[in-house]
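Hey, I was hoping to borrow your eyes for a little while. No rush at all, and the record is pasted right below:
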Amino acid sequence: MSSQVPIRVGAAIPSATAPDRVTQFRRRYLGAFLVASLLLVLWQSLRIILQLPAYKLPDPLSIVGEFAATRPSGELVAVSLGRDLLITWWEAALGFALGATAGVAMAIVFTRSRVLQRGLLPYVVMSQTIPILAIAPMVVVGVGQMGAPALLSKAMIAAYLTFFPVSINTLRGLQSVEPDALDLMRSFAAGERDSYLKLRIPHAVPYIFTALKLSATASVIGAIVAELPVGSNEGIGSALINGAQYNTFQPAYLWATIITAAVLGLLFYTVVALVERRVVTWRVGE
């Protein structure tokens, strides 16, 4: 008579052991660290071999040291860029929220109406062919003249870049539901609202987060571009303009500003990825 091990229903699955966590950490971060180290070595080697002047390619250590330098006002560069980062963060976050909400809503409308989808979708696609540098001054200045706060006028450009990938990916997710699943919902007398809340939208969530991760960095770019045409004296866009003007005399400041913008985009992407791991729990192990 074979012995059977009793299985308790609802028992918690044991968490990963310490060696497993170390292995996961190595796989996730060791590669990025090695690539960054290789790039720094290549950077420094090119400066030495090609004898590039500092205004063309500054020394990596001088860029790091620039964060500890002081501005003419006596403020640390790290503090100044940190304040600019927060300002651009809020602009990008507001635009990201507006664009994502509008994108999901538009996708739901397109799913419910084939006529609107065929009539409006080509114009949605066409809107993304307009260069962002051409439309940014018109939008920022025009919205500002309507009495909107400066934060909202700049966030509109971030929303513009967020809207398209979210709407297209959400539309694909909503329309990729299996017909048998929809028939099963109808057999249970589920209405259109229940079909969306319990089937279509949950099915589209992975598609939505894929678009949100793409839009995370795009919204940061939109916020930075929106700061350029209005003569703003705060934000990463303003810092980039100042760094470009004095690049010949102080090249490390421009590169420090570029690194700050890259860090902001990485932080934005990381936040969205962490939220995805909390929401899309059935794909965590993939």
User: Anything to note?
Assistant: The two ends are 39 Å apart (CA to CA).
